[in-house]
## 1
Amino acid sequence: MTIERTEQGILIKTTAQINLKALQRIIDFCNVSEISARAQGTQEQADELASQVNKKWWSENKHRFVK
């Protein structure tokens, strides 16, 4: 694996044998970290947004857990 900084960003090269699901989780984490670094909201706003997301997720997935 090689990691290289370019003018456009950071380039990561790895073999094709890597677990793509695990790699996607790492990329998602990096995206969240990048967005969080630019965030200017308060903790209360973040808590409210998380609550709304959780409510929406539960309403869409409740049938999978409650028979």
## 2
Amino acid sequence: MEIIKYIILGIVQGVTEIFPVSSSGHLVIFQALFGLEQPGLIFEMFTNMASFLALFILFSGDIFKLIKGFFMYIFSKKREEYKDTFFYVIKLLIAIIPIGVVGFIFKDYMGTIKNLLTVGIALIITGGLLMTIFFTRNLIEDHDEITWRDSLVIGVTQAFAIFPGISRSGSTIIGGRLSRVSLKSILKFSFLAYILISVPTSILGIVDLASTSETINWLGYILAFIFTFGATFFTGYLVMKKLKVEHLIYFGIYCVVVGAVAFTAFFLI
């Protein structure tokens, strides 16, 4: 049963990291309702690194193109050819600054509010906003290019995802749609931003691993890593190929229902 716990948590992390339903919120719910205690910060590092690696492989073509374009703009004489790529990278950096700042300020506080009440409220808010995006989908005209304003709006809305129950991918979708960005462009930008911000957090996680006194079930952690990787890769591929604005209504309803269950359970358990 101990090993199954790690596998379940790995799958939950992988799927909910991609879908706009909050991975942190679901881990809190599984912990409280099903007695699946989350092993700790090092476990989070393992699963987050697995999601990072899966998305890195999934978007490897785009990543290498961005890296090449960024440095070619700086060092090549044909700068104009790589101008759009260079500024796209800068926009990604702008988008991750707010969540980095907010996360640093509130990192010691987040653990104290991880409970069914706060997660339930946050999921209901996320679901309500996703349904609003669905019902207003025909009122706005999409554009594919991410502007400077778009990157800032997406960055600000993404910062709310540090609160358990607020979906990171959901918040970027909401921010992007508020700026009238097409869903496909939002998703690509969102996942690339996740990869970018995961680099320093993964490095810090490795440093913490070297100095941790936390008990580690290596078999469980490795299995969680494998299942998180597989779930993230498959779900990410599916979302990029199939997800449409029309589908947001289902995620919105799901978040509201699960949020209501978590909210109610807080007073009953």
